[in-house]
Each structure stands twice: as C-alpha cells, then as structure tokens.
Amino acid sequence: MSDSGERKKCSRCRQALPLDSFARNKAMKGGRQAYCRKCSAGYYRQRQAASGRTVREKFPVPRGHKRCPQCKEVKPHSAWERNKATSDGWASYCRECRAERNRESYFRRKYGMTVERRTALLDEQFGICPICLKPGPEHVDHDHETGRVRGVLCFSCNAALGQFRDRPDVMRRAAAYVEGNVWKPKLVAPGVYRLPS
User: Fold this and answer.
1) Using 50, 70 and 90 to split pLDDT, how confident is the model at 1?
2) How far is residue 105's CA from residue 98's CA, in Å, rounded to a whole number?
3) 3-class SS at 49?
4) How far is CA 71 from the centre of its chain?
5) Beta-strand pair 16-18/7-9
6) Does the keyword section mention Nuclease (predicted)?
7) Residues near 143 by beta carbon (within 8 Å), at least 6 away in sequence
8) 75 forms bridges with which residues in the sheet?
9) Alpha-carbon distance 93 to 100, whole Å?
C-alpha cells in the first residue's frame, strides 16, 4: 500500500513509482531502498550470474497453490504437507516428490543402495518374491549380522524371516511341521532337547 500517495524515483530504471514499490530500509534516506523491487531483483540476479551462481526462476503461482521444485508442477495446498519451520507454512516439496525423496534417502541410509539398484535387484528376480513366487515384492531383505542385501521380498515372507530370526534350522523345522512331520521333542537334560534324526 502506498504511503500517502508519495512517489519515489528509482536510481536504476529512473521511473517515479509509488513508495510501496520500494523495500523498506531504515539506513537509507526516506526509509526506502534506492532501487525499486523489480530492479533490486534484476540486480541481484545479475550479481549472482557474474559470480557463477544460479538463481531460481520465479513463476506466477495462483493463491492457494505452490510450485514444487522437483516435479516443476503448480499444485493446490492440499497436495502439500504442513511445515511450521518454513516461511509459508508448507513443505518444500509436494507429497509425491517428498515421499520419493524420503524413499531414496531411506534406502541410502539403511541399505547403502539406490532406488535404481533396488529396481535392478527386482529385475534379476523377474519381479517376483523368491520365496512365495508372488509378483510385486517391495521389501528389501538383508542379513542382520552382515548388513548384506539378499533380495526383495513380499511383506509376508520378509516378516516371516524376521520372526524366524534368520535361523535356517528353525525354518527347516517349520517346513517339516507344515508338511505334517510333527516331532515331539525329547528332554535329554534341562533345556536340552533331542532332535529327530
């Protein structure tokens, strides 16, 4: 809003503009910058380009919308998560891009692998779970002792391996049990059982 209809001349473009076209600056005479906002932005971009830096382009965004720097789409605020730490109160990236970035970061942190490597692993398995042979496995399986990635499993198979604590002897007994070969443990000593031969 213009302060009482006063005008000021921009030192760069030499146009007489309303005072609200100039940013406030208590150190300057009259309490306003010497350059208008448009010229200040142009001068800033010019200085950044001279020093070899790039400046993000400004795009017109309608009210209630925001532009995602990753997918470059303008989306309504409903496609964003709230973030009190930012100046506008919204996350820097839209929900989809943020989820993708978090997924990539998770794989890098947890398994030391990229999403591309996970996709290549899935292709090597022909897109199926190597245990139950169902399509569409999503969970990376790794050895908890060494940290080595073994493959990509479906949720159920990955959870089952976790429940069996990656112990092959327990898994073999479970397979025998499911096949109907139930064994009755024989107590040999306190806490020691004889296994069937």
Assistant:
1) very low
2) 10
3) helix
4) 13
5) antiparallel
6) yes
7) 150, 166
8) 66
9) 10
* Interval 116-169: pLDDT, tens: 999 999 999 999 999 999 999 999 999 888 889 999 999 999 999 999 998 998
Helices within 129-179 (DSSP H only):
155-163, 168-178
Q: Would you call 173 exposed, middle or buried from its count of C-beta atoms within 10 A (0-12, 13-18, 19+)?
A: middle
Q: In sequence order, which residues have a C-beta less than 8 Å from that of residue 106 and are 6 or more positions away?
A: none
The average confidence (pLDDT) of the chain is 90
pLDDT one-digit tens code per residue, 164-181: 998 998 998 888 888 877
Do the beta carbons of residue 121 and residue 137 sit within 8 Å? Answer: no
Residue whose token pair is 């380009």: 49
Tokens representing 27 are 């150190």
Give the β-pairing of 139-142 and 149-153. Answer: antiparallel
State how far the Cα of 152 lies from the Cα of 124, in Å rounded to an integer.
10
pLDDT in tens, 23-36: 999 998 889 999 99
Q: Which two tokens stand for residue 114?
A: 């990229």
Q: Which two tokens stand for residue 66?
A: 């925001």
Phi, psi (rounded to 5 degrees) for 124: -65, -30
